[in-house]
Amino acid sequence: MSKIILTGDRPTGKLHIGHYVGSLRRRVELQNSGEFDKIFIMIADAQALTDNADNPEKIRQNVIEVALDYLAAGLDPEKCNIFIQSAIPELTELTFYYMNLVTVSRLQRNPTVKSEIQARNFEANIPVGFFCYPISQAADITLFKATTVPVGEDQKPMLEQTNEIVRRFNNTYGEILVEPKILLPDNAACLRLPGTDGKAKMSKSLGNCIYLSDSPKELKVKVNSMYTDPEHIHVEQPGHLEGNTVFTYLDAFCIDDDFGKFLPEYKNLQELKDHYTRGGLGDGTCKKFLLNILNDRLEPMRQRRKQYEQDIPGVYDILRKGTEEARKVAAKTIEEVRHAMRIDYFDDHELISSQSEYFKNKK
Ligand code: ATP
Ligand code: MG
User: Whole-model pTM?
Assistant: First the structure.
């Protein structure tokens, strides 16, 4: 069986380091591993409209921002298809068929949707499209027969829902669809990177983000104001690591080589943590170390982004080509789906001839 990746992001803003450690970094590694037959990266504009219906301009302006972030992070259009969701009408069609395979109460149980409804104050007025987005996500994944979906932990319920739909469809209509596997980050800190405020997951909607495209100056301000241990007031006091965002980010980004480069007094992160919890290590030192590491990782991305920003028509060309390629695969799957569901009337010669016999012979 072919190995196929599908994953993507909503163009509701620029991408942040939560996206990077949760999914984007992995995508680039998988792309360069050469182990996958096809890689589809989707800019989910239609999904973004489900909670931004009154602000389409925001989505329109952010498609290019997400595309620039992808290319800056190292996604290579020679190795993967970056495409725009709304340009694939087959996705809408498949979603419509899947809606018959899912109950309202099943959707209501989805914990990610529950918390997102709360975060958006949608309790009394949930747009139907937003409520159904897990179904459309199942269509996104299965239309491309994806086997592997590298995403953050918040997507787990979506993958469970997708697999239920696949099983229901295959049982009812025949084995057409493929059950995908979620690929979560193997580092616990990356599953759900917290925001700089330390409160919730880093999320575009919450304004607690470090963006991949932040300048060194912006980055410095954000790192310096990061949430640490509120009880660690004097340097000599023992500090706590639990919930300490600076250490969570170090867990997500730091490698041993960073000590040689930026903090040679320590050999590795464990030594630094031990000193912090023992007391005698200030938050300033840790923040400065983190700042150096983040600048080291983001600088090549900033440079690549700058280059692509000089050729926006070229970036749209990449998206157009990726979308054309995605449509070819989409058309093939939807043909199989229609055939399996027996709604491919015009190609069903047996149906037409048996009915013509029936009506001719009818007394
Ligand atoms: P929005 O607020 O518009 O939903 P978002 O920041 O939650 O934006 P999405 O576009 O919903 O981002 O998520 C895209 C991908 O990034 C998903 O795979 C998601 O799991 C992953 N992701 C998003 N935020 C984080 C995070 N803080 N930590 C780890 N992974 C994340
Ligand atoms: Mg989200």
Answer: 0.94
